[in-house]
Description:
The chain is an alpha/beta fold. Helices cover 36% and strands 17% of the residues.
Amino acid sequence: MTFPVDNPEASDAASDQIVRALAGASSLTVLTGAGVSAASGVPTFRGEEGLWRSHRPERLATPEAFSENPRLVWEWYQWRKERIAACKPNRAHEVIAEWSHRYPAFTLITQNVDGLHERAGTRNVVRFHGSIWEVSCWNGCRSSPARWPDHTVTYAELPPKCPHCGGLVRPGVVWFGEGIASETLELAARALANDVFLTIGTSSVVYPAASLSSAAKARGAFTGEINLEATPVSAQLDASVHGAAEVVLDELSSRCDDSGR
Length: 261
Ligand code: NAD
Ligand code: ZN
């Protein structure tokens, strides 16, 4: 069920459907996007705050941009790391973390690279697009691991250097135009078999993540969406609630508690 933003009754009906589905489920998969972290103060890419020094994220988060100007791309990542380091998980992260401990089978697939789900204590997180708190060697030098943790917020020197070969390091995130690791795709594919699949705070325009909700529906899962507005997948899903993730998830959580879940 999908409905226009100005139709609160339909929104309530969609929420009811999600509560019923959650109450009857023993396994749950949640897919999240930047909207889940918006209330924590992390800018989304497509929101008004997405621009940085008049650059579009889609032009900076690419291998081409990095080869052309690694310093510029790293300045942007350093700005994002500084911003994220000052943010805390919000109610949406907390509810998802609670569910991760409540359902015997649970997977969170997140497109977010900020680490806020992990900080909220969520178990079984599949980081679909990597982490801003990891780096890898740009040259893929033999002596370096595939990627390693890097919690530096403000670097002494930009761009940072690979400790193994002295070349450049790159942020440990998946850029536009890059593929998703096969192990990550496999973990996500396995999670499509769960009873309920909720897609929360994602514009559903970045593939292959955007195809996961329809794939879960095709596998027989109940599929629900929570977003401020309709997305390209809304009409294909079972229930679509228009609202802020941190508000809607808090409501769903209390209603699920009342129903004994
Ligand atoms: P997006 O910026 O394309 O879309 C954000 C979506 O969230 C929009 O549909 C918007 O309507 C919705 N939204 C905004 N505030 C909301 C709220 N309070 N509650 C519910 N929904 C809300 O983000 P995306 O779909 O995640 O795709 C962008 C890509 O950029 C991702 O692949 C991700 O890797 C990356 N990214 C990550 C972060 C992060 O780690 N926090 C932030 C920006 C972008
Ligand atoms: Zn190296």
